[in-house]
Design a protein that fits this description.
- It is built from eight helices and seven strands, in the order H-H-E-H-E-H-E-H-E-H-E-H-E-H-E.
- The chain has 222 residues and is of the alpha/beta class.
- It has one domain: Vaccinia Virus protein VP39 (Rossmann fold).
- Strand 4, helix 6 and strand 5 form a beta-alpha-beta unit.
- The longest helix is centred in the middle third of the chain and has 14 residues.
- The termini are far apart.
Length: 222
């Protein structure tokens, strides 16, 4: 079901402009050649040169807000394509007075156009859409085309953290990361019944745990 547009959305987004990075699309084709005219200056955006970590599909911001509060020496970049949920995340950042988060309204296909090469320390993929039909496998955020983008924007020793409730997506991800030269650590087939420490629950995660679903987690690195 499509989410109903929030009331006063345009005005509310305007109130969040200092948190939302303005971008220009230029050629909107995903496969258009990449120059450097649209690359973002992350140091200017955050006002410092602290390490940058990115969540793709940040939703209402529960995960990234908690991560930013725990680690104020890290700059967090939240990528979200839906204005409806992005505005809620921005308002939560203002409410909690968090200084080290910025948002980009964007789909992941365009990341390489705006994010400089070798600029991101970690990428978080929390409960991405599994696209269960095989015909939609290329839309999964751990398909070859997205992993190719991640390998460009990640720093040399960068890492990707994934959490999902979908076993088939998890198996697909392990296969694709392996095929693209990644190794693994801290793999969990039931995160909430493991000895892993420091987990930050997302909104979806809380619902899935209450339903009794196991949470799958991995850390992938080159």
């Amino acid at each position: 079901m499509r989410m109903r547009k929030k009331r006063h959305l345009t005005e509310r987004l305007a109130d969040c402009t200092e948190l939302i990075v303005p971008i220009e699309y230029g050629d909107k084709r995903f496969d258009a050649s990449f120059g450097d005219e649209f690359l973002l200056d992350l140091k200017e955006i955050f006002g410092n040169d602290n390490p940058v970590e990115m969540e793709i599909g940040s939703g209402k911001g529960g995960f990234i807000c908690e991560a930013a509060k725990r680690r104020p020496d890290i700059n967090f970049l939240a990528v979200e394509k839906s204005s409806n949920v992005l505005v809620t995340a921005c308002e939560n950042v203002f409410k909690e007075g968090i200084q080290n988060i910025r948002f980009i309204k964007l789909t992941a296909e365009y990341l390489q156009r705006y994010i400089p090469e070798r600029s991101v320390e970690k990428i978080y993929l929390n409960f991405s859409c599994p696209y269960p039909k095989n015909s939609y496998a290329d839309h999964r955020l751990t398909s070859d085309r997205f992993i190719k983008i991640y390998k460009v924007i990640l720093k040399e020793n960068g890492e990707i953290y994934q959490k999902t409730d979908d076993m088939k997506l998890f198996e697909f991800s392990i296969e694709k990361f392996s095929q693209n030269g990644f190794k693994f650590k801290n793999i969990s087939l039931d995160l909430h019944n493991s000895d892993f420490e420091g987990n930050i629950e997302t909104e979806y995660e809380k619902k899935f745990v209450e339903m009794g679903k196991p949470i799958y987690r991995l850390e992938a690195y080159i």
